[in-house]
């Protein structure tokens, strides 16, 4: 091991990952843990989880606290208050000499375009958000949460599909193959049983139905196709809205991240086709919050 250990953490609602690298980017260790998304009402809880994970990966790399630098890229820190609270708690803990906390999508943007680079990041998982940077500044669209927005994200697609199933059961809307696919996925036998299931399910449990919805749309079901096409249209509109706010020299490159768009994500092909159809250049591969966090940690250690 040469020089200080730099740690990047990617913390979301379903799990978290940490990576220790040296200042040159050589991998030293990796560790996984449970969720580390930030609850704005209890930011210290997330800070404790991040600290424990960072200390574990540091020791796996052969080091002891404090690390040289830590960048924690976390879901739930889009507003300054929870971000500042988690950053302050981690700084007080002594886990690293330099600490920075940022959103997971800011870190993914850095991985795709470099620090301060121009480009558009579209992140779609349980929710959805766009971060765009251009000559005229930085703009964000989406990321308003499950009540006010997050259109095209997994929760939104699943909720639209569940409503379509309920309306079909009432005879208020056409029957749909979604019914026969969603009921087994939820473990219920009757559409009426979706009421207690949905009441007890968490947002991510509901969002896990999104790949089923996309699959039914791919099989040609018109109701599912309307749900998915509406989500893709909303995501495209968010990309174009953020792009317009970046000044006259608007970025044209788009990077994708998140469970529905990364790798073989079920929504990726449809979104890529739609974005290319409006003249944008979609980059290959997947933007990684963990890679972006490691890059920021290395920058901190070199300051």
List keywords for this structure.
303 residues; alpha/beta; Nucleotidyltransferase, domain 5; 5-stranded mixed β-sheet; 12 helices; 10 strands; 20% strand
Descriptive notes:
The protein is of the alpha/beta class and 303 residues long. It folds into two domains: 6-110 and 289-302, Nucleotidyltransferase, domain 5, CATH 3.30.420; 119-250, Nucleotidyltransferase, domain 5. The chain is 46% helix and 20% strand. The strands form two sheets. It has a five-stranded mixed beta sheet with strand order 3-2-1-4-5. A five-stranded mixed beta sheet has the order 8-7-6-9-10, with helices on both faces. The radius of gyration is 20 Å and the shape is globular. The mean pLDDT is 93.
Name of the CATH homologous superfamily of the largest domain: ATPase, nucleotide binding domain
Strand order of the largest sheet: 3-2-1-4-5
Assembly context of the chains: single chain
Radius of gyration: 20 Å
Number of DSSP E strands = 10
Name the CATH class of the largest domain: Alpha Beta
Mean pLDDT: 93
Major sheet description: 5 strands, mixed
Structural class: alpha/beta
**Strand content range:** 15-25%
Uncertain stretches of 5 or more adjacent residues:
none
Envelope shape: globular
Q: Cα distance, first to last residue?
A: 19 Å
Element order: H for helix, E for strand? EEEHEHEHEEEHHHHHHHEHEH
Please bin the fraction of helical residues.
Answer: 40-55%
CATH architecture of the largest domain: 2-Layer Sandwich
Number of helices: 12
Instruction: State the domain count.
Output: 2
Find the CATH topology of the largest domain: Nucleotidyltransferase, domain 5
């Amino acid at each position: 091991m040469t020089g200080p250990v730099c740690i990047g953490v990617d913390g979301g609602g379903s799990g978290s990952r940490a990576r220790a690298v040296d200042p040159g980017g050589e991998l030293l260790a990796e560790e996984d843990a449970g969720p580390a998304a930030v609850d704005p009402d209890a930011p210290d809880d997330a800070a404790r989880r991040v600290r424990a994970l960072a200390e574990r990966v540091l020791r796996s790399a052969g080091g002891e606290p404090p690390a040289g630098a830590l960048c924690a890229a976390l879901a739930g820190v889009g507003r300054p208050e929870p971000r500042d609270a988690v950053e302050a708690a981690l700084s007080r803990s002594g886990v690293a000499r330099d600490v920075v906390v940022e959103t997971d999508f800011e870190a993914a943007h850095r991985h795709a375009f470099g620090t301060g680079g121009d480009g558009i990041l579209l992140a779609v998982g349980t929710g959805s958000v766009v971060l765009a940077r251009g000559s005229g500044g930085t703009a964000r669209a989406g990321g308003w949460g499950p009540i006010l927005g997050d259109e095209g994200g997994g929760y939104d697609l699943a909720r639209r599909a569940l409503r379509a199933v309920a309306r079909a059961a009432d005879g208020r809307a056409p029957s749909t193959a979604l019914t026969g696919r969603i009921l087994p996925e939820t473990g219920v036998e009757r559409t009426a049983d979706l009421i207690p299931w949905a009441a007890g399910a968490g947002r991510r449990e509901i969002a896990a139905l999104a790949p089923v919805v996309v699959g039914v749309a791919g099989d040609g079901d018109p109701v599912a196709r309307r749900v998915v096409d509406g989500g893709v249209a909303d995501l495209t509109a968010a990309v174009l809205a953020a792009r317009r706010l970046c000044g006259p020299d608007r970025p044209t490159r788009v990077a994708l991240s998140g469970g529905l768009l990364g790798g073989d994500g079920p929504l990726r092909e449809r979104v890529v086709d739609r974005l290319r159809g409006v003249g944008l250049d979609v980059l290959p591969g997947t933007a990684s919050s963990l890679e972006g966090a490691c890059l920021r940690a290395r920058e901190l250690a070199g300051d």
